[in-house]
């Protein structure tokens, strides 16, 4: 019978324990969510057969081009994800591993959906206020209705605002804000026109490019994330305010220098 040293036996036992621990870790569910590029929607067009923007009390105009809001999609809060799922996503550019608590901060799925709907409503109200304020129109005379099914959260604020302005005013010279282009973007907005960060920018860029956008408006605070992995053919323009976004679009349409991340 061959002799086995004490050290060899210890190493053998330790190796078995390590293998067992790795197996347990690989099979144990983790508190993570995997996000991917989500849907995009043209706020100047229709969604589920209904116009995204409806305006009463003021004359609207026919627009060309597109203003696309973008989203990310995430696994359900009760999805069972494991170490192997995280490792796979880690090495992909079209997937991101995120703490579940960052995407779903608590509560039931119904509560989360209600919260997302409330944030979307608040975003729409702020977008309407910012657009009418910019156009010097009274909200008591001009009524704006925004409808976008199956989308929640505040990140479409900037694009809603630009869509309202384009529908009512265009670029102020008889043309469109888009210049006929397919423009995508993300960012929250406040009633005074301040654009805020939203998160998930790299995945949103991919969604924008996938759906044909050549220009992407991004909150300036997220420039470093946006330029880390920029899809080929997508021009990324940083903005901090509604005025800045409108100025950038004007420069783009006139062929002037446009800000870049």
Automatic annotation (TrEMBL):
One Pfam family cited in the UniProt record for this chain: Lon_C
InterPro entries: Lon_proteolytic (IPR008269), Ribosomal_Su5_D2-typ_SF (IPR020568), Ribsml_uS5_D2-typ_fold_subgr (IPR014721)
Domain Lon proteolytic: 152-245
Positions in coiled-coil regions: none
Listed name of the protein: Lon proteolytic domain-containing protein
Biological classification of the source: Bacteria, Bacillati, Actinomycetota, Actinomycetes, Kitasatosporales
